[in-house]
């Protein structure tokens, strides 16, 4: 199977030296890519600059991105050849209006107001134009109390085939407690508090069974 995985944070420039980013480490997507390679899948990992470094075993299948725009270009290039997209990247919700190229905000300019524009929804765009035989799986990171309801709403709004619902404290943790929710309403529940490596195995057993 040709599996495309995205992982890690996007980084949006605020000026020539500052960035707007998030706490995603990229660890889960790296674990899924490692497991997919181990199983013999034709694997591509699109990886942001998170805190977790990829092992040398996945370097050959790994392409790096910085901004949402970079990730969009890489998805446009690689998704057409994929059977399955696992969209674990923590993509920006807002993109700063950028200062003119080569400039830097100075503390001496006084209070600074940032203008943030909504980012394009990459996975929704892809799901909207996918071929029927392609599978698109998203992630929803939400507070525990509203996790399942919010994940189901995102699954349907974005037109995904399935979504992994995991609580906010998954971020920067080495463990995960998650559910896989399918578009037909089926919910698969993984054991609580799995390592991200064990969860990657569980997830691929469901998304790409047989290898
Ligand atoms: N996602 C995306 N493009 C964005 C933001 C998110 O493709 N600009 C994808 C993520 O990779 C993930 C899924 O959408 O697979 C859900 O991301 P999440 O941030 O939880 O949802 P949002 O659509 O950003 O909704 P909200 O801002 O309400 O949380």
Descriptive report:
The structure is a single chain. By secondary structure, this protein is α/β, with parallel strands linked by helices. It has helices at residues 27-38, 68-78, 122-129, 147-158, 196-207, and strands spanning 2-7, 12-13, 19-20, 42-47, 62-64, 84-87, 94-96, 116-118, 135-142, 162-167, 175-176, 179-182, 187-189, 194-195. Helix content is 26%, strand content 26%. The mean pLDDT is 95. Bound molecules: cytidine-5'-triphosphate. Residues 87, 89, 91-93, 119, 121-123, 138-141, 154 line the site of cytidine-5'-triphosphate.
SSE sequence, one letter per element: EEEHEEHEEEHEHEEEEEH
Q: How would you sum up the global shape? A: globular
What is the multimeric organization of the chains shown?
A: single chain
**Unreliable sequence segments:** none
User: How many DSSP helices?
Assistant: 5
Biggest sheet descriptor: 8 strands, mixed
What percentage of residues falls in helices of 4 or more residues?
25-40%
Provide the structure class: alpha/beta
CA-CA gap between termini: 9 Å
Mean pLDDT: 95
Distinct bound molecules? cytidine-5'-triphosphate
Strand order of the largest sheet: 5-4-1-6-9-10-12-13
Can you count the beta strands?
14
Q: How much of the polypeptide forms β-strand, as a percent range?
A: 25-35%
Radius of gyration: 17 Å
Summarize the structure.
The protein is an alpha/beta fold and 211 residues long. The chain is built from 5 helices and 14 strands.
SSE order and pairing:
Blueprint: E1 2-7, E2 12-13, E3 19-20, H1 27-38, E4 42-47, E5 62-64, H2 68-78, E6 84-87, E7 94-96, E8 116-118, H3 122-129, E9 135-142, H4 147-158, E10 162-167, E11 175-176, E12 179-182, E13 187-189, E14 194-195, H5 196-207
Helix pairs in contact: 1-5
Bound molecules: cytidine-5'-triphosphate.
Cytidine-5'-triphosphate binds next to α3 and β9.
């Amino acid at each position: 199977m040709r599996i495309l995985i995205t992982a890690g944070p996007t980084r949006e420039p605020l000026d020539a030296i500052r960035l707007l980013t998030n706490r995603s480490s990229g660890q889960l997507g790296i674990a899924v890519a490692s497991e997919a390679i181990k199983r013999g899948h034709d694997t591509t990992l699109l990886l942001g600059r998170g805190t977790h470094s990829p092992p040398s075993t996945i370097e050959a299948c790994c392409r790096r991105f910085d901004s949402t725009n970079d990730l969009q270009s890489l998805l446009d290039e690689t998704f057409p050849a994929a059977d399955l997209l696992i969209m674990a990247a923590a993509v920006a919700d807002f993109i700063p209006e950028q200062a003119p190229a080569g400039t830097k905000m100075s503390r001496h300019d006084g209070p600074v107001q940032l203008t943030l524009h909504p980012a394009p929804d990459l996975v929704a765009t892809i799901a909207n134009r996918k071929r029927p035989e392609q599978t698109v799986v998203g992630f929803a990171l939400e507070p525990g109390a509203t996790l399942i309801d919010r994940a189901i709403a995102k699954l349907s709004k974005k037109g995904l085939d399935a979504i992994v619902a995991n609580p906010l404290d998954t971020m920067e943790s080495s463990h995960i407690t998650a559910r896989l929710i399918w578009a037909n309403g089926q919910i698969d529940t993984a054991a609580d508090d799995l390592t991200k490596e064990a969860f990657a195995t569980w997830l691929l057993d469901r998304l790409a069974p047989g290898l």
